[in-house]
């Protein structure tokens, strides 16, 4: 059976998923905070907690929950792709892997101290250890995704266009949320 790539559909789906990717990540943190009973406030790019987190186990779970919920969404995207045999549903998984690699690289070169840096230090490791691990995994997943695309009968050029189109459209939507829409609707 031939699996259809449908570039335009994938780009549109990736763009709309990208708009919700930031809030979904914060929802992971929010749910973990709420599970432990903290009185938190939801912002477009962070969850504000007025009291210190009780211990490092809770801190680890709360921080890890942000990316965990996105990896869960990537798994759903992969399973739905298999179920429907349409690559359009694979674009959120591609976007998550791409943004994960980008986020890891930013942490690794020290431009910010994000979730992955914090998780490393909670574990008593060097701040760059988890960013390095997740950057490596992100690149491996992107490579495997391209191999997975080989199930379609499109040319290599079309597959590369699909992969890049999905990453660029979704990446623009993530930036649009963080820089324009988020600060307005969820300051
Ligand atoms: Zn986070």
Which small-molecule ligands are present, each listed once? Answer: zinc ion
Based on CA inertia axes, which overall geometry fits?
globular
The helix-and-strand class reads mainly alpha
- Rg calc: 17 Å
What does it look like?
There is one protein chain. The chain is an all-alpha fold. It has one domain. The chain is built from six helices and two strands, in the order αββααααα. The chain has a two-stranded antiparallel sheet with strand order 1-2. The longest helix is centred in the C-terminal third of the chain and has 30 residues. Bound molecules: zinc ion. Zinc ion binds next to helix 1.
Question: How are the elements arranged and paired?
Answer:
Layout: H1 7-35, E1 41-42, E2 47-48, H2 56-84, H3 91-108, H4 115-122, H5 129-149, H6 156-185
Antiparallel strand pairs: 1-2
Helix pairs in contact: 1-2, 1-3, 1-6, 2-3, 2-4, 3-5, 3-6, 4-5
Bound molecules: zinc ion (ZN).
């Amino acid at each position: 059976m031939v699996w259809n790539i449908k570039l335009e559909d994938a780009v549109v789906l990736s763009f709309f998923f990208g708009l919700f990717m930031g809030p979904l990540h914060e929802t992971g943190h929010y749910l973990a905070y709420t599970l432990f009973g903290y009185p938190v406030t939801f912002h477009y790019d962070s969850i504000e907690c007025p009291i210190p987190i009780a211990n490092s186990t809770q801190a680890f779970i709360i921080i890890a929950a942000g990316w965990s919920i996105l990896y869960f969404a990537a798994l759903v995207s992969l399973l739905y792709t298999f179920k429907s045999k349409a690559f359009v549903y694979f674009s959120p998984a591609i976007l998550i892997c791409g943004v994960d690699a980008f986020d890891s690289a930013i942490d690794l070169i020290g431009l910010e101290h994000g979730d992955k840096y914090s998780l490393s230090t909670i574990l008593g490791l060097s701040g760059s250890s988890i960013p390095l691990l997740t950057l490596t995994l992100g690149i491996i997943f992107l490579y495997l995704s391209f191999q997975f695309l080989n199930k379609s009968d499109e040319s290599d050029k079309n597959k590369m266009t699909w992969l890049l189109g999905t990453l660029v459209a979704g990446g623009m939507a993530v930036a649009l949320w963080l820089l324009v829409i988020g600060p307005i609707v969820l300051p």
